Amino acid sequence: MTGFKLSRIIGGVFKLLLVALIGLIFGLLIWRVWFSTKVPDTVDTLMPNSALHSAYLQYGEELTLRYQEHGTITREENNKGYFSVVSCVFIPEAEQVQIVFRYNNSTIDHLAEDYNLEAVPDKSEHLFDVTLVRTTDLTPDDASDNNDASTLAKQRFQPTGSLRDETLLYTYYRYVFDGVTVEDLTDGIFVDVYYNGAINYEATAYGTLCIYSRGEEWKEYKPSRADRDALEQAG
Question: Residue 139 has what pLDDT?
Fold first, then answer.
């Protein structure tokens, strides 16, 4: 075998290895972006209960399903990327809000650091307290003071139902909140997240995400076939 032929063979092998490496990188990127971030079917569908079922029986296809577009991930310096709300729907006729809440494995590592825990909690543990907070403007004639907490009344809503699932990288919860209405003076509705081992509603939440802000545009939530099936189920 001449040196020329040998060099061509070696060059061909390197090209094949390069193509294989590029294919592997693209494959990993596709898996990371699509498969690892796909919301599990178990929490991706509306969760029926008696309030939702009753509203659907009364309003049928006229039932309002809507949401607002807001930042879906925490971005403060102390919790950047920790938590996100990947889906949210307001159902006014049922006085209900449903959200899909998510955090990744690295959030659990940060939790152990932030709270000086002796060990990193197991992923299977129920680690976070998730509630909704509705703020009401006490001085509706003066919009300039809405950043002043003393001019806003707060009401906190505990979840009335939940489902949990996880993927290799993420943990997901679907939460249902009943009795939540948006009134004329409702200034905002927020998702508050506290570590279950240190719940203090008087203290700043570990993470907060806005899902409603007065004056922002509503968008129609288009239910999937699975959503429609869920709406028709008895509560």
Answer: 74
Q: What residues does 91 pair with on adjacent strands?
A: 96
Question: Rounded to an integer, what distance in angstroms lies between the CA atom of residue 103 and that of residue 210?
Answer: 16
Q: Where are the alpha helices (DSSP H) in the chain?
A: 3-30, 50-59, 105-114, 225-232
**CATH of range 61-221; options 2.60.40, 1.10.8, 3.30.700, 1.25.10:** 2.60.40
In the predicted model, residues of the chain with pLDDT beneath 50 are: 234-235
Task: Please give the backbone phi and psi of residue 69, each rounded to the nearest 5 degrees, phi first.
Answer: -90, 120
pLDDT of res. 137: 85
Residues 137 and 144: their CA atoms lie apart, in Å, by 11
**CB 174, CB 160: distance < 8 Å:** no
Residue ranges of domains in the chain: 1-35, 61-221
Other C-beta atoms lying within 10 Å of the C-beta of residue 201: 12
C-alpha count within 13 angstroms, C-beta hemisphere, residue 199 = 8
Transcribe 95-110 into DSSP letters: TEEEEEEEEEHHHHHH
